[in-house]
């Protein structure tokens, strides 16, 4: 194994740029996707029928087609279509529209929104109606009931599943190397082409992704443990303690 190329600032620049772009893509897609998930979930539950059917069609298409196909559709399809619009290349937004990062973030945001939206919709349906009725009895407006009671309770119920979605998002990021975006895998490919080393760059990138997955898992686990209503009692763990046989008979 030859890792001497790691000391070359030229290759270090590839890795740093790829790492930063990867982190930015995860952050933008996760935040945008979760916001979109709330919109999709509430639209399917409470929106007018045309909007509810549109949201259902959106989730069906996004969940029923491969992520790589969606990425190609937006980058090669929508991107090339925008190039043909008169005056678009002279506009202020053209630097954004020609950037692969924009289409990668758009694709991942829509994907996270579709998957997480269905998860959140199921969680909203699982919240007992009595909790919302109690909020209305205290004089809360429908918006306050949703923001203070219904949505937090639903997030509490589906937070472990949303954690899994974020980990899947992280492991999907290497797909963006297919649209010439500089991420960690693209950096590894460039290093392989220039050093003729096959395994070393891939092993390094695999180790970085493994470390990122572990850090993300630990961070999200802390969010789960400290989310209101989910923190276990000290010394009790997540599962209820089993009573001794004598106490069970007495009860």
UniProtKB/TrEMBL annotation:
Main localization, broad class: membrane
Record membrane topology: Multi-pass membrane protein
Keyword check for Repeat: no
Residue span(s) of domain ABC transmembrane type-1: 19-220
Subcellular location per the Swiss-Prot or TrEMBL entry: Cell inner membrane; Cell membrane
Keyword Isomerase carried by entry: no
Annotated keywords: Amino-acid transport, Cell inner membrane, Cell membrane, Membrane, Transmembrane, Transmembrane helix, Transport
Ranges that cross the membrane: 20-43, 202-220
GO MF term set: transmembrane transporter activity
GO biological process: amino acid transport
Gene3D superfamilies: MetI-like
GO cellular component: ATP-binding cassette (ABC) transporter complex
Family: Belongs to the binding-protein-dependent transport system permease family. HisMQ subfamily.
Protein name (Swiss-Prot/TrEMBL): Arginine ABC transporter permease protein ArtM
Organism listed in the record: Halomonas caseinilytica
């Amino acid at each position: 194994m030859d890792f001497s190329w790691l000391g070359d600032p030229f290759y270090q620049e590839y890795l740093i740029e790829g790492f930063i772009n990867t982190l930015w893509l995860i952050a933008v897609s996760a935040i945008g996707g979760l916001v979109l998930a709330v919109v999709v979930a509430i639209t399917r539950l409470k929106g007018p029928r045309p909007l509810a059917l549109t949201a259902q069609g959106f989730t069906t298409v996004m969940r029923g087609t491969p992520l790589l196909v969606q990425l190609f559709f937006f980058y090669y399809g929508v991107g090339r279509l925008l190039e043909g619009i008169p005056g678009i290349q002279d506009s202020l937004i053209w630097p954004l529209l020609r950037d692969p990062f924009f289409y990668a973030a758009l694709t991942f945001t829509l994907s996270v929104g579709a998957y997480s939206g269905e998860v959140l919709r199921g969680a909203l349906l699982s919240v007992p109606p009595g909790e919302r009725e109690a909020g209305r009895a205290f004089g809360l407006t429908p918006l306050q009931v949703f923001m203070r009671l219904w949505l937090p309770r639903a997030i509490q119920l589906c937070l472990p599943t949303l954690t899994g979605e974020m980990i899947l998002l992280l492991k999907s990021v290497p797909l963006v190397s297919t649209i010439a975006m500089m991420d960690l895998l693209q950096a590894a490919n460039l290093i392989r082409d220039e050093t003729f080393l096959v395994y070393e760059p891939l092993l390094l990138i695999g180790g970085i992704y493994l470390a990122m997955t572990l850090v993300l898992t630990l961070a999200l686990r802390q969010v789960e443990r400290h989310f209101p209503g989910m923190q276990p009692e000290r010394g009790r763990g997540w599962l209820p303690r089993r009573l001794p046989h004598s106490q069970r008979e007495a009860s």
